[in-house]
Design goal:
The structure holds 2 protein chains of 2 kinds.
Chain A lengths: L6 H25 L15 H18 L9 H5 L6 H4 L1
Chain B lengths: L5 H25 L18 H18 L1 H19 L2 H11 L2 H14 L14 H12 L5 H7 L6
The chains are: A mainly alpha, B mainly alpha.
Chain lengths: 89, 159
């Protein structure tokens, strides 16, 4: 039922989806020409380029969610690990 | 005229969904294959990066061709997000580097082969892109549904 999701499954799927998007964003970022490229002609930055930019932007947003995992308190250390949530925190 | 029962309406919805799945299957079978396909295999090579990338591209194509309206809406959302990111100094620099990249040109060709460019061009609000409808018409008429048959299917008064 929609009102009764399976918690562990939902967490794993959701976090794996975020991970996949973050990995995709890193792969797209690696395609960018190294260094500061000269300004491209206006027509060159079309919808496809902006689509790639959006993927990178979303990936960066996802990665900004992660560093807090290193600052968890002792209570969090002793609690049983929940599948996938450590990365998100 | 009698009012259709909920069961009748649900049957219509189910039938429409069946037709949608058939159309998606027809499009997938008719679309050019992505080449080269990595070898099928069992064991570690089955999960090779090439196989994973190939499966990802195939899934993207199925998602686009099978759900054109949703894919178009997502595409527009992402492009808008990309334009917002490009309005920042870091985003603008990244945009220029992407636009100057030869690898991105290669990726653009891959994207065109995957999406068949059906997400570009005009589209009715919340509707399927015109390019998708044209692709579908090409595929259907290429499978034995000629103009004479289509004319018999149209309601009276429609050319």
């Amino acid at each position: 039922m929609l009102s009764d999701p399976q918690t562990a499954f939902a967490e794993a799927t959701f976090v794996n989806g975020l991970l996949g998007l973050a990995c995709l964003a890193q792969a797209v970022r690696a395609l960018a020409a190294p260094g500061r490229a000269p300004s491209a002609p206006a027509g060159k930055a079309d919808d496809f380029i902006h689509l790639l930019l959006a993927v990178i932007s979303l990936g960066e947003s996802i990665e900004r969610l992660a560093p807090a995992a290193e600052h968890r308190g002792p209570s969090a250390e002793s609690s049983p690990p929940t599948y996938g949530l450590g990365w998100l925190r | 005229m009698t009012t259709p029962t909920p069961e009748t309406l649900l049957a219509v919805v189910a039938e429409l969904d069946r037709l949608r799945a058939l159309l998606a299957e027809l499009l997938e079978r008719s679309a050019p294959r992505l080449m080269p396909a990595p070898p099928e295999g069992y064991g570690p090579e089955r999960h090779s990066p090439e196989r994973a990338s190939y499966e990802l591209l195939l899934s993207a194509r199925r998602a686009v061709l099978g759900n054109p309206a949703a894919a178009r809406a997502l595409y527009e959302l992402l492009v808008a997000e990309g334009r917002r990111h490009a309005a920042t100094p870091a985003g603008a620099q990244l945009r220029d580097r992407l636009a100057a990249s030869e690898a991105v040109d290669h990726l653009r060709r891959v994207w065109e082969a995957v999406s068949l460019n059906v997400l570009d061009g005009p589209a009715a609000p919340s509707g399927v892109p015109d390019a998708w409808a044209e692709l579908l018409a090409d595929v259907v008429t290429g499978h034995g549904l000629n103009e004479a048959i289509l004319a018999r299917l149209r309601p009276e008064g429609f050319a």
